[in-house]
Amino acid sequence: MSLFKNYFELTKPKVVSMMLITAIVGMLLATPNIPSFQIMIIALLGIGLCAASAATINQIIDRNIDAGMQRTSGRPLPQGEISLINASLFALFLMIMGTIILIYFVNTLTALLTICSLIGYAFIYTVFLKRATPQNIVIGGLAGAAPPLLGWTAITNSIDPNALLLVLIIFVWTPPHFWALAIYRRDDYARESIPMLPVTHGVKFTKLQIILYTILLFIVSLLPYVVLMSGVIYLIASLVLGIIYLYTSFKMYFYDDNDYPMVSFQYSVYYIFLIFAALLLDHFLVQ
């Protein structure tokens, strides 16, 4: 594996890409018209660098856990492809560059919120919550839910209730999304003594929690229509997507097939992209 690819893997590119997509949604929903392309690119660069730094710090702290888990054992740090000091310097460089870009070329509010998100994920979640409570992903999910707000503030330099509603959707979506994967990987988490919900409370209880959170998500997803943030196009999309998500969750609960958790997990990824796509479609077509 090339040196560039190793450092690239440290940044968790798939996770960061997903975060940036939701940040773009926040940017596009922040104003009636399409924002300045230049501002969008600069803000995404700053947010992306800080997110990549947080991902790298996460892998630095979790390097020993990652080495013992099938899903993560091939990462650069467990494999010894990158030294601990080099990874730490890389994370520091990404954080400093991202923060400078946001402060000097975007706005201080976005920089402050981005750093808070970085600290929340890289340190509060990774160092403390992940090892302390089976509710780790519920509490720590707030940091991962921030990108739409960051995108919004990058354009408006203000915190809007509609932006917080986007955060709420991701915040409620995160537990059922991650717990489905945790069920599938529960043996890995148990072996490393990570108190994920399927390990501490069992698979059946976790499946029930997924159903309850999916129901809550179904309700929360309707709020953009209720508060007149969106129209009928979004309402129809949220109803259809929510019903499908509920179906996958109930099916996973009543059947013990080991493949169903991954089906639910994979659908949850499509769900969050499509629900935000529906918001954008409604935003620009209904004007």
Detailed description of the structure:
It is a single chain. The chain has 287 residues and is an all-alpha fold. The protein has 2 domains: 159 residues, Orthogonal Bundle (Tetracycline Repressor, domain 2), CATH 1.10.357.140; 128 residues. 80% of the residues lie in helices and 0% in strands. It is built from 16 helices and no strands. α2 runs parallel beside α16. The radius of gyration is 19 Å and the shape is flat. It starts with a helix and ends with a helix. The model has no long low-confidence stretch (mean pLDDT 92).
Radius of gyration equals: 19 Å
Low-confidence regions: none
Give the N-to-C terminal Cα separation. Answer: 49 Å
CATH superfamily of the largest domain: UbiA prenyltransferase
Secondary structure: number of strands:
0
Q: Class by helix and strand content?
A: mainly alpha
Name the CATH class of the largest domain. Mainly Alpha
Shape: flat
Secondary-structure topology with pairs:
Blueprint: H1 3-10, H2 13-29, H3 37-61, H4 63-67, H5 76-79, H6 84-105, H7 108-132, H8 136-144, H9 147-156, H10 161-184, H11 186-191, H12 197-201, H13 203-220, H14 223-226, H15 232-254, H16 260-285
Features:
80% helix, mainly alpha, Tetracycline Repressor, domain 2, 287 residues, 2 domains
